[in-house]
Structure formats: structure tokens, C-alpha cells
């Protein structure tokens, strides 16, 4: 049977971590990432089963009758390494942003705001493309796949 108190702690850590990851402050985002990583590690440990004898032949613990699951322990060690690697990378990005802008708050992107204010393009059903005189464009032709328009190629 799983420990209900530990599951409540896992839920609280996850909720706090998700709340922090939704902030615009990058330092809080990293703290949220670390909280969620620790909550996942606790969840794996809790669901790994009860403690028992070491998974080594011939080793016994005092009064244990079952063998501990080594898979959960290995997954937790791997998750710790991955979480610390992602946190180190994110901290490096935060440091770089702080040296460039002297702030670690993510601002609204001007291009995203402009696109959000544009009216949506009208949806066509595709029948207009096959009228007489309408030029049919092949989307798979090399001219359509190039990033530059046809007049700007060198």
C-alpha cells in the first residue's frame, strides 16, 4: 500500500512546480522545473514498491523477506542526472539573457502581438483554384520549395 501522505506531498510539489513554470521570470521557471523533477523522483520511488533486501545475491537486510526493485532506483538516478543537466542548460540561458538585457523576465514578443491583432485569413474551399485562367501552382516544385522568391535568386 502506498503512503497517502507522500502522495499528497508529491501532488503539492507538482502543483507548486507547475505554478512556478508558468511565471514569466526565468529563475522561477527553473525552480518550478526542479520542483517537478523532484516530485517525479518521489513518485517513482513511491510506486517502486516496498523496501527490501538489496538486489545482490547473498546479501540480506535485517528482517526483510522481499527483494527491492532496482529498476526504480536506476530510473531515479537517471532522472536526477537529466534534471540537473536541463537545469544547468537553463541557468546558462538565463545568465546569457541577463548579461544581454540585465533582466530575466520574458517580455511579450512584438511579432506575436502583431499577428494576434491581424484578422484571420478567409478560408477557401479550393474550388477557385481550378477555374479557367487561374494559374495552378505546384507546391512541390523546386521554385515553391525555395526560401527566396523567384526574382531574388542569385
From TrEMBL:
It is a multi-pass membrane protein. Keywords: Cell membrane, Membrane, Transmembrane, Transmembrane helix. Residues 109-154 are annotated as: Disordered. The chain crosses the membrane at residues 6-22, 29-51, 71-95. GO terms for cellular component: plasma membrane. InterPro entries: CPA3_antiporter_subunitC (IPR050601), NUOK/Mnh_C1-like (IPR039428). Residues 124-134 have a biased composition (Basic and acidic residues). It is found in: Cell membrane. It holds the Pfam family Oxidored_q2. Its main location: membrane. The keyword Magnesium does not apply. Signal peptide: none annotated. PANTHER family: ANTIPORTER SUBUNIT MNHC2-RELATED. Belongs to the CPA3 antiporters (TC 2.A.63) subunit C family. This is Na(+)/H(+) antiporter subunit C.
